[in-house]
Every structure is written in C-alpha cells, then in structure tokens.
Amino acid sequence: RQNRSSESYPGIRWWAQKKYVYYVLALCVASIGFTVNQTIGQSLSWYKLPAGIAILCWGYSIYSGLYFLRYVISTLFANDTYLSITEGSHPEIGTNKQMQKAAAQGVQQAMNSNSDKAMKLSKRQNALFFIGMTSFIIWHVLEMIHKTLEILPTT
Fold first, then answer.
1. Residue 18 and residue 140: Cα distance in Å, rounded?
2. How far from 129 is each of 11, 55, 59, 64, 140, CA to CA, in Å?
3. Residue with the larger pLDDT of the pair 126 and 79
4. Are 136 and 124 in contact (CB under 8 A)?
5. Are 100 and 93 contacting, i.e. CB atoms less than 8 angstroms apart?
6. Alpha-carbon span 37 to 49, nearest angstrom
7. Residue 154 Rama label (left phi>0; alpha psi -120 to 50; beta)
8. What is the distance between the alpha carbons of residues 144 and 139, in angstroms, rounded to a whole number?
9. Residues 83-92: b if buried by 16+ CB within 10 A, e if exposed
10. 47 and 142 in contact (C-beta within 8 Å)?
C-alpha cells in the first residue's frame, strides 16, 4: 500500500475536480447540440419551453465551469506568489519580514476569496447541469404526450 503525504491529497483532489469540471463542460456542450438537433425544423410552442430552459441552464453551467477554472488558475498563481514571498525569493518583497508578513496576508486573502468564488461556481455549474437535464426530460415527456394526442382519433 502506498503512503500518501498530506501534501499530495490537495493535488489529487484538484486533479479529480478538474477532470469532473471538464466532463460536465463536455456534457453540457453535447447536450446543447443534441437538443438543438432534436428541435431543428420545429415551430415554437409552449411545451417546448423546457427545452429552451435546458439550453439556457447548460449554457450558464458552461459559463460557471469556465469561470471556476479561471479562479482555480488564479489561485494557483497566487499560491506560487505566496510561496516565493514566504521563502524570501520574491523579487519585490525580498527578505524584509514586515513586508513578507503583509504581502503574505494579502495574497492569502486573495487565495481565500478566489477559493470561495470557485466553490460557488462549481456548485452552480453542477446545479445548472442537473436542472438542465431535468428540463430536457420534462420537454421530452411533453413532446411524447403531444405526439400521442396528435394521433388519437377525435370523436
């Protein structure tokens, strides 16, 4: 059994989270394409509203996922800056302890803020993805009901 240090866990967690975000992004793009393909040549009607809602949810899920990645990348860059400050190798801060402390606190606050925003965006991406899926299923059921009602004989 392989021992993992506490430092490797965040790396593994980030790798898994990044893969998941990319997976949801790809699913949303594919879902939008599939829904658009399924509605080509159809006229607008009230029962197609859930399909439109699904497309909007997936589009905003994509937006949230991409901004999540931006905040994560920004946090990784800030972490690199934080390490160079605390090690005394930052070109503008150097080894001045007061400057190191102030700069490290500022960078730490920025990382915490970025992390909080990224977490909210990740939750939003997931929620919108699932709301889009639910809306698509509702649209599909309404579409089936509509087609069934069209073929029933009228008396």
1. 31
2. 25, 10, 9, 10, 17
3. 126
4. no
5. yes
6. 16
7. beta
8. 9
9. ebbbeeebee
10. yes
Q: Residue-wise over 129-140: b if at least 16 C-beta within 10 A, else e?
A: bebbbebbebbe
Amino acid at 9: Y
Q: What is the mean pLDDT of residues 29-50?
A: 93
Mean pLDDT to the nearest integer, 42-56: 93
24 membership: H or E segment, kind and range = helix 8-38
**Distance of alpha carbon 107 from its chain centroid, rounded?**
24
Residue 37, token pair as written in the block: 């393909």
Residue bearing tokens 């400057």: 99
Q: Read out DSSP for 74-143?
A: HHHHHHHHHHHHHHT--TTTTT-HHHHHHHHHHHHHHHHHHHHHHHHHHHHHHHHHHHHHHHHHHHHHHH
